[in-house]
Automatic annotation (TrEMBL):
UniProt-listed NCBIfam families: PRK12497.1-3, YraN family protein
InterPro entries per record: Restrct_endonuc-II-like (IPR011335), tRNA_endonuc-like_dom_sf (IPR011856), UPF0102_YraN-like (IPR003509)
Single GO MF descriptor: nucleic acid binding
Native source species: Zobellella endophytica
Segments forming a coiled coil: none
Database matches in Pfam families: UPF0102
Classification via SUPFAM superfamilies: Restriction endonuclease-like
Family named by the database record: Belongs to the UPF0102 family.
Gene3D superfamilies: 3.40.1350.10
Protein name (record): UPF0102 protein C7H85_08755
TM spans (from-to): none
């Protein structure tokens, strides 16, 4: 068991890095709203709040920075799925994008490094 998660289990690794990112953001003053929001349009790893802004957070992990690392793995198609899932979340909560300030952040975990990118896309 390296880094606290079982080797060979991608889901366990993903969960471990999502919790790590969550702790990182909580330490920086964000407030957790929900984890792993799922709808037919996609999944949002973390939804948090800072002030009056809802923050939809994608957590990406790559063991190495080869091929651009974790940040480069968020393709335009993935960004579109996240936007659609966020709109679904807002609708479920009776909110809309014109009345609720929102942003999309990325937490890129490359090996042991964490890089938080507010307003990533």
């Amino acid at each position: 068991m390296a880094n606290g998660y079982p080797e060979g289990s991608k889901r366990a690794q993903g969960d471990w890095h999502e919790r790590r990112a969550e702790r990182f953001l909580l330490d920086r003053g964000l407030i957790l709203i929900t984890r792993n929001f799922q709808c037919k349009l996609g999944e949002i790893d973390l939804i948090m709040r800072t002030g009056h802004t809802l923050v939809f957070i994608e957590v990406r992990y790559r063991k190495h920075r080869h091929f651009g690392g974790a940040a480069a793995s968020v393709t335009p198609a993935k960004q579109q799925r996240l936007r659609r899932a966020a709109l679904s979340y807002l609708q479920v909560k009776g909110l809309n994008e014109s009345s609720q300030s929102c942003r999309f952040d990325l937490v890129a975990c490359d090996g042991d490094d964490i890089n938080w990118i507010p307003n990533a896309f």
